[in-house]
Structure formats: C-alpha cells, structure tokens
Amino acid sequence: MPQNPGIKLPPERVHQLKSIGEKWNMNVVDVIGEMVNQQIEKGVIEPGVPGIEVSKHGKRFHFDVLNDLQETTQNMGDKLREDRLLAADEMRQLAKSLRESMGVPKGGDLLPTPKGFQLKRRGTSLKLLNVKTGVERTLAPGIARDIAQSINKKLNEVS
Fold first, then answer.
1. Per-residue pLDDT of the chain (159 residues; tens, 9 = 90+)
2. d(CA 41, CA 12)
3. What is the reported pTM?
4. Cα distance between residue 140 and residue 137, in whole Å
C-alpha cells in the first residue's frame, strides 16, 4: 500500500474539523475516521481496512497483513498452509487486544496475541508484526479499532 503523501486541507476546513472534534471529544484524525465509518455504515464505501484482510477458511481464519496472504499462497494455488490459519478463539484474542491496546502505556509490554503475531504500543500508535513473515504495520488507534470490528464481523458470519 503506498504511503500517504499528506493531505492538504484549507485552514477553514481544518477549523471545522477541530470544531467537530471538540463537540465529539475526539482529535481531527479520529473525527475523519468516524466520518469514514459513517459512510461505511451507509454503504457508500466497502467496510474493511486497506492492506488488512480477514478471510475465513472453513472453521479457521487467516489474518492478512499487507499482502501476507499472497506470500503465504505463492506456488500453492488457493490452498493455505494449515499452520498459517488461526482458530476462532485466537482471532477473538487478536480483536480484544486491538480494542484494548490503547490502555497500555507507551513502550508497554507486548499484548496477548495469537501465535505468530506481536502487538505493542509505538508512540501514540500500535505496531502489529507477523513474526513468521516479518511483515509489520504501524496502526493508528482508530484503524486498530476498525480491524477489531472487521475480525468480529468475520467471526459472526455463518459458515
């Protein structure tokens, strides 16, 4: 996924976003995230987080971080290696850790995650690492919450 080159807004729009943030008790980044989530709920855009995919394979799940799924399935067709799939309880733990992660002090201990993943505070954000592939992603708090919602939604789907 390409890096954000920076979004330039007119000062008037920044002032409006800050005003909304004061009313909603949020910073500007979270205000924008809330507006995006409102559009997802209305069906204007698809749910999910770009670069993150949660897929269901029978009764197990694959948590795809930045094209990790493509690396996993390379030269294997569509069949995932069994050791790369997570059970539902492991996915629940990952979602719980993502939701609760912002309560951990900066530089705090690693949070409980399923085998093969690490989650740790990094400044005001989180670092999510797939230990097996080395793929790493720094997540803003709002994005971590969105990923947790995506995981929970996939867990609640009927097989």
1. 445 668 899 999 999 999 999 999 988 888 998 999 899 889 998 888 887 888 888 888 887 775 554 554 454 444 445 556 788 888 888 888 888 776 666 666 667 777 778 888 877 788 888 777 777 888 888 888 888 888 888 888 754
2. 27
3. 0.73
4. 10
Q: Where in the chain does DSSP place strands (E)?
A: 52-57, 60-65, 117-122, 125-130, 136-139
Paired tokens of 135: 């793929």
Structural domain spans, the chain: 11-42, 52-156
Enter the DSSP assignment of 49: B
In DSSP terms, 113 is beta-bridged to none
146/148 Cα distance (integer angstroms): 5
User: In the block, which residue shows the tokens 């269901």?
Assistant: 56
Q: How many CB atoms lie within 10 A of CB 61?
A: 21
* Contact of 117 with 108, CB cutoff 8 Å: no
Q: How far is CA 84 from CA 31, 38, 59, 116, in A?
A: 35, 33, 13, 9
Residue owning tokens 């949660």: 54
